[in-house]
Amino acid sequence: AFGDFLSKKMKKSIEKNMQKSTLTAENIQDTLKEIRLALLESDVNVDVVKELIAKIKEKAEGGYIQEGVKANQQMVKIVHDELIEILGKENSPLELSKKPSVIMMVGLQGSGKTTTANKLAHLVRKKNSKNPLLVGLDIYRPGAIEQLVELGQKNNISVFEKGKQDPIITAKQALEFAEQNGHDVIILDTAGRLQIDEKLMNELNELRKNTSPSETLLVVDGMIGQEIINVTNEFNRLLKLTGVIVTKLDGDARGGATLSITYMTKLPIKFIGEGEGVSSLSPFYPKRMSDRILGMGDIETLYEKAVENIDERSMQKTMKRMFMGQYDMEDLRNQLAQVAKMGNIGGLLKMMPGAGKISEDQVNDAQRKLVIFSIIMDSMTLKERRDPRLLKAITRKNRIIRGSGRSEKEFNELINNFDKGKKQVMEMTKMMKSGRMPQFGG
Ligand code: GDP
């Protein structure tokens, strides 16, 4: 089915590269390389791929680190969120508030326009409790009007048609007929052509001006691949579309062109067709599509669960250890994880006393350190974190730098920060033990 190809590739690359517990520069890079390839192979537009990869990279590297949540879960979450953005964020529902609401269906011949008009009538009757009227205006394609009538009869939907009469006159009569017969949604099945031409566009434009549609929907054949973007842009330029319906996606497992439409044309995909049957038209939900591509049931919940599972008691344990003078890098790591878990470090810092003096730069720096330090500490063994003196050995140091993909400078920064922090912790606990509570803020 639609998206299967991409889904398989995505899952494989994330699973393969994200075995480690956290995101590192290295596994991010490897995964992105493969995701990029998977997107291109699925026929996603190059510009969309670029944008998507840049966004994912930025998030993965820029402090999305969440201790206790596996790297693959983090990556899935990031890719999932960015896909939703690219796909248009929210479902774009039909505008049906006008009484009656006119929906004008346009598209090239063979795109599935007539079939889809019928499916849409069926859908608004079922889901929106509307009383639709189909109007046959395709006077060019032989048999198009008969086809519409036949489909209407089969599915018990009223069809208005006046044969080869001028479509504008027929449309006006249909509006009157709808009013007299209580039809609140009027679906116009307009003429298609084999390719876009000025004459056809002018006719459609006249029809549009005469019927003031609430929706002008372009029906495109999903099988034509990247050509979808050109067709959509052309129709939109001349007809001011309100959305796109992509058909025949049951035959296109790759579907990358469809995934590119909204980003490339700024138009929402309102429905997708995945079969010839009357009920095989579904509203398009960016989130559900993204779920589908990443093969997740409900990844939102999955992620929340994982975050919840971070050991709640680790903070208390750390406090206790600090009091006993036992502060080591494992404790620092737990603390940073807690901070990360609380989310936005900027927001956190601002809530602290004396926050007025904290600049944007300082917040960014803290955020960056949090991420980088976590990555470096993840490349240490537990033994090394428990006994940071071991880190003085040059072979250990080099191994950690290599493994984390960070620089020596950053490694040293971590050690210095840890040493400074440990000194403060020791002084603090000494004061606490002697009954003199340290003063914060002010
Ligand atoms: P029109 O010229 O744009 O009105 O195209 P039609 O509505 O006649 O559709 C052309 C062909 O595509 C017909 O055989 C339809 O049954 C078929 N078709 C339309 N939508 C879909 C779809 O979502 N999946 C499949 N498999 N076939 C479709």
From TrEMBL:
Family, similarity comment: Belongs to the GTP-binding SRP family. SRP54 subfamily.
UniProt xrefs under PROSITE patterns: SRP54
Keyword Signal in record: no
An example Gene Ontology molecular-function term: 7S RNA binding
Classification via SUPFAM superfamilies: P-loop containing nucleoside triphosphate hydrolases, Signal peptide-binding domain
Source species of the chain: Williamsoniiplasma somnilux
Binding site for GTP: 107-114, 189-193, 247-250
Catalysed reactions, as listed in the record: GTP + H2O = GDP + phosphate + H(+)
Stretches assigned to the SRP54-type proteins GTP-binding domain: 268-281
Keywords: Cytoplasm, GTP-binding, Hydrolase, Nucleotide-binding, Ribonucleoprotein, RNA-binding, Signal recognition particle
Classification via InterPro entries: AAA+_ATPase, P-loop_NTPase, Signal_recog_part_SRP54_M_sf, Signal_recog_particl_SRP54_hlx, Signal_recog_particle_SRP54_M, SRP, SRP54, SRP54_GTPase_dom
Subunit structure: Part of the signal recognition particle protein translocation system, which is composed of SRP and FtsY.
Key word RNA-binding present: yes
Known function: Involved in targeting and insertion of nascent membrane proteins into the cytoplasmic membrane. Binds to the hydrophobic signal sequence of the ribosome-nascent chain (RNC) as it emerges from the ribosomes. The SRP-RNC complex is then targeted to the cytoplasmic membrane where it interacts with the SRP receptor FtsY.
Location in the cell: Cytoplasm
Annotated NCBIfam families: ffh (TIGR00959)
GO cellular component, one term: signal recognition particle
EC top class, as a word: hydrolase
Protein name (database record): Signal recognition particle protein
Domain of life, source organism: Bacteria
GO biological process per UniProt: SRP-dependent cotranslational protein targeting to membrane
Domain comment as written in the entry: Composed of three domains: the N-terminal N domain, which is responsible for interactions with the ribosome, the central G domain, which binds GTP, and the C-terminal M domain, which binds the RNA and the signal sequence of the RNC.
The enzyme's E.C. designation: 3.6.5.4
